[in-house]
Design a protein that fits this description.
This protein is 66% helix and 0% strand. It has 163 residues and is mainly α. Pfam families: TatA_B_E.
Length: 163
Amino acid sequence: MIDFGFDKLALIGAVALIVIGPEKLPKVARTVGTLLGKARRYVADVKAEVNRSIELEELQKMKSQFETAARDVEQTVTNDLNAAQQSFNDQFAELGNGFGGSGYSGSSSADPLPELPPTYQRPNKRWRLKRSAVPRWYKQRAGVRGHVQSGAARVARHRPKKV
């Protein structure tokens, strides 16, 4: 990198004063300063873009590593689960064969697993609605609210009527 000391900057300033002249020197200095500022911002933007691209590559590598690790874990879990299911089925079949020879008259050996209960289904659309033992006419007489009313509707309802 170019190293500018105080003596070099003073020499450049003196040459610029002689070549450009004292009237135009402040305007030229401002122009040079703005151009240097733009150049620094451009370099900083390029550096930031390069850093972002490097971080993006690192994140993509990390993502691929996590995906492969997740796939490996999923594979091992499914393999272990399949092995356990197979061993359970084998042991259940052996138990079924053992009961078959001793006069057990249970389910047939073709269907070794018992039938599962049916899945839960909601009774109807209004299953969350609470049912009350108190009749509606009693609630109305006692002043229990049956539905929600806004404040303005309540005021309008209870406002005395003009004669």
